[in-house]
From TrEMBL:
A Pfam family it matches: FBA
Record's GO cellular component terms: cytoplasm; SCF ubiquitin ligase complex
Domain FBA: 70-251
Superkingdom of the organism of origin: Eukaryota
All copies of domain F-box, residue ranges: 2-49
Keywords carried by this UniProt record: Ubl conjugation pathway
The name this protein goes by in its record: FBX2 protein
GO molecular function, one term: ubiquitin protein ligase activity
SUPFAM superfamilies assigned to the protein according to its UniProt record, in alphabetical order: F-box domain, Galactose-binding domain-like
Length: 251
């Protein structure tokens, strides 16, 4: 770098570097010279970037790698499930099994239903009188979670789903999530019991959640699958309703 840069106090240099996009810091700036490499690999720069962008976690660790990963994971944090609420019909959902009259998308609250407990969710998927299921496979590398991060840091993988019955019909619901290797071996899994909702239920929406952690190296894909049916075998769409599914990778 310019010799005038070398005479800058380190705190000033850190402030300058903190204004540079993180990807450029890691891919370009750390190659400039030893001093810059040490700063990019140090905790202070990433702590400052976290503070500047309001990414404060419970992490009080001074471990540099933790702060760098905390920054990247916080910035990337988003729902990796596409079309979680049926706004795009069944697009992005694979392995779709249409039992009975098959999946249908309806507007909330629906017949004999309740509004969703948070704003921004307007639709749901509903099942029929024989088992309906659908799944999504998330490619973690394609979503920006590199191998070393998954193998070494092993960030938490948080899975959530919401289900409800209609108050005039009983139904069944299941959730099955797998963490898969490159060769699609199952490295960790979470499967609910078959959850039964009785015919005279309150139609309230229920959240189900599971967090994968310390799952070991090699995870490259997340397979999310859910489904259900009604228990009365009524023609049409009286089975379980699902919406707002999510998979997030958390710092």
């Amino acid at each position: 770098p310019d010799p005038r840069m070398e005479s800058l106090p380190e705190a000033v240099l850190i402030r300058i570097l903190a204004s540079i996009p993180a990807v450029d810091l890691v891919l370009a700036c750390r190659l400039v010279c030893c001093q810059w490499k040490n700063l990019v690999d140090g905790a202070a720069l990433w702590i400052l970037k976290c503070q500047q962008e309001g990414l404060t976690g419970t992490e009080s660790e001074e471990n540099a790698e933790n702060w760098q990963n905390f920054y990247f994971l916080s910035k990337k944090r988003r729902n990796l499930i596409k079309n979680p609420c049926g706004e795009e019909d069944l697009q992005h959902w694979g392995d779709v099994h249409n039992g009975g009259d098959g999946w249908k998308i309806e507007e909330l609250p629906g017949d004999f239903g309740k509004e969703f407990p948070s704003e921004g969710v307007h639709k749901y998927f509903v099942t029929s009188y024989e088992w309906c299921r659908k799944s999504q496979v998330i490619d973690l590398r394609a979503e920006g979670y590199w191998e070393e991060l998954m193998d070494t840091t092993q960030p938490k993988v948080v899975v959530k789903d919401w289900y409800a019955g209609r108050s005039d019909a009983g139904c069944l619901y299941e959730l099955y999530v797998k963490l898969l290797s490159e060769n699609e071996d199952v490295l960790a899994e979470y499967k609910t019991e078959t959850i039964a909702i009785p015919q005279d239920n309150d139609a309230n929406w229920t959240e189900i959640s599971h967090t994968f952690s310390n799952y070991g190296p090699g995870v490259r894909f997340v397979c999310f699958e859910h489904g259900g049916q009604d228990t009365l075998f009524w023609k049409g769409w009286y089975g379980v309703r699902v919406t707002n599914s999510s998979v997030t990778v958390e710092p």
